[in-house]
Structure formats: structure tokens, C-alpha cells
Amino acid sequence: MGKRGEPLEVRNAHFPSMVQIEAYGNGGFRFADMSHRGSLMCIPSGVYGWEPKSFEEITDEALEHVLAEADNIEVLLIGAGDELKPFAESRKAPFREKGIMVDSMSTGAAVRTYNVLLNEDRAVAAVFIAVENT
């Protein structure tokens, strides 16, 4: 419950800028002194809660927001969960057409790579499947 017994308002998770991921694991992420339970999408317009809970749930529809901001992205990192899972070459075509390189790796490796590229002011975007253990 919220203040004075009012129902707690749940909003779509969104942080309006690109920030470093401070920690991951236990089914979520920490960034900007906040925590988020579930998967994340980090694109130039900010950090968003993201629906997919497994690599297999990463559909073309789930990646539409990345393509919508393609003018400001050179690299898309896919954090596939606990282990490396390849992103099908055939699914990379729409990203290549917009000049975006796609690289899939475990969520931990993707978080570390994302933080480095963001620190270097590279035009990076990432989607991360939440993992339980780190």
C-alpha cells in the first residue's frame, strides 16, 4: 500500500538517461542508486524495464525500441542470461541495415562490456536478461 492506505501505483520502469549498471544478479539490476527486478533495455532515451525473461523470449517485437533509436546506436549488446547464446545471423539483418553491430554474450559479460563502452562515450545499447546468480 502507498501513503495513507492508498493502492501503490506501479509504473512502467524507466530511467531517462543512459547510466552504468552497478550490479546484477538475484533476478535484477542496480543502477543510479536504484534497483530493478527483471530484465532491462538500455537505449539512448534511457533505461527501461523489459519483458523478456529468457533468451528465447527475445522477439523482433521486443527489440523494436532499439531499432526506433538506431540513429544513435552503433553496437547492441544482448545479455542472454547465465550463458552465451548466439543471436541468429538472420535476425541481425535489420540491425546491420541501420549500421548496428549485434553481439550476444552472457548477461555478466554484456553488463561489463556495456559499462566500458558507455564510459568511452560509445553509441551503445543493450538488452539484459536478468539472472539469479552472479
Characteristics:
134 residues, alpha+beta, Hypothetical Protein Mth938, Chain: A, 6-stranded mixed beta sheet, 3-stranded antiparallel beta sheet, 20% helix, 30% strand
What would your notes on this structure say?
By secondary structure, this protein is of the alpha+beta class. The chain has a single domain (13-128), classed as MTH938-like (Hypothetical Protein Mth938, Chain: A, 3-Layer(aba) Sandwich), CATH 3.40.1230.10. 20% of the residues lie in helices and 30% in strands. It is built from three helices and nine strands, in the order ββββββαβαβαβ. It has helices at residues 64-68, 89-97, 107-119; strands at residues 14-15, 21-25, 28-31, 34-37, 39-43, 46-50, 75-79, 101-105, 124-128. The strands form two sheets. Strands 1-6-5-9-7-8 form a six-stranded mixed β-sheet, with helices on both faces. Strand 5 and strand 6 form a beta hairpin. The protein is globular, with a radius of gyration of 15 Å. 28% of the residues are buried. The mean pLDDT is 91. It holds the Pfam family DUF498.
| Strand count | 9
Tell me the strand order in the biggest sheet: 1-6-5-9-7-8
Strand proportion: 25-35%
Total domains: 1
Name the CATH class. Answer: Alpha Beta
Note the total helix count: 3
Helix content: 10-25%
Summarize the helix and strand pattern as letters.
Answer: EEEEEEHEHEHE
Q: pLDDT below 50 for ≥5 consecutive residues: which ranges?
A: none
Biggest sheet descriptor: 6 strands, mixed
